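Box S1 | Example of a co-folding query
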Amino acid sequence: MTPAFEDILRKPDLDREEIKLLLSAEGDRMKALLRRALEVKLARLDNCVHLRGLIEYGNVCEKDCLYCGLRSGNGNVERYCLSDEEVLSCARLAHELGYGSVALQSGERSDPAFIAKIERLVREIKKIDGGSLGITLSLGEQSDDTYRRWFEAGAHRYLLRIESSTEELYYKIHPRNGKHSFQKRIACLESLKRIGWQTGTGVMVGLPFQTQDHLADDLLFFKRMDVAMVGLGPYIPHPDTPLYRLRDLVPPAAERMDMTLRMIAVLRLMMPEINMVAATANQTVDPQGREKAIAAGANVIMPNLTPGEYRESYFIYPDKACVKDRPDQCRSCLDIRLAAIGHRIQYNAWGDSLAFTKKAKG
Ligand code: SF4
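Box S1 (continued) | Returned holo structure for iron/sulfur cluster
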């Protein structure tokens, strides 16, 4: 390894060329990158992993993203929507398991009944043990007014993935019609930040047509947007989607996994105190994927709490990992897997982004 490479690993501000150099690291260089990212994470955040109990509220979606199994154009999926009681019992379970936070995720809907129901559910979840659960929402693009209503109801983190920060690539994976707008996605992220949400975004890694330049620009976009959290995961082709036709342009699973790890590691160097999710998609392409993501710099895991009978209908991508695990099995499995890599779960805490809380304190 050249001294120049070692120096880049220690630079506080990386430029586009340096990011690209790190994203192309292989062999000893890749090991050095991952080692450095772990060192930075342990120094700035410690070895704690935060949990968000994932509640997949429903799979009805108004959008038609070309990569996603929940797209409205997919007639091969049985649609569902959890009842209030089902959502609340998942939230109570999260509290009993000591998860500290829940994440409510769903296909995108903007009808008044949906907006009011989410607002009501957030208020009800906040009543559990005097507001002890933190709430993340991941419910797509909404109006300023809706974001404000849900924030005032008590949710405080919002994840809205940009999927690609390059407009041209964005429109290769989203149809160019009135329902999908790159500019609107950016405007939504800005609106969330303005309102005061801990705002998160992210991208898929290994998309057809995606280059190292696109990925470097994604990392610079996260930095420029000054987001509090990021979710990165490998793209997994879904057979019931239009993008599946281009699967020959998708790199092999091992390459997508390695690139995801490099993305996580480089971002940890660039934004040492943000929260980063070790996405379940990592586990789907590699049985050790989530642990590898944690060891590369991620610090959040989202164990699934969705009732078992609905899980197989929430296939954004196929062969999702841990679909059959019960929540109690999942918790002990995570404890063991994380201990094996020198990490531990921080139970009964919201696990907010340090980058965000520091800024909020001024
Ligand atoms: S990615 Fe989200 S918005 Fe797009 S089709 Fe899937 S669930 Fe709907």
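The chain has 15 helices and ten strands. The domain at 48-357 is CATH 3.20.20.70 (TIM Barrel).
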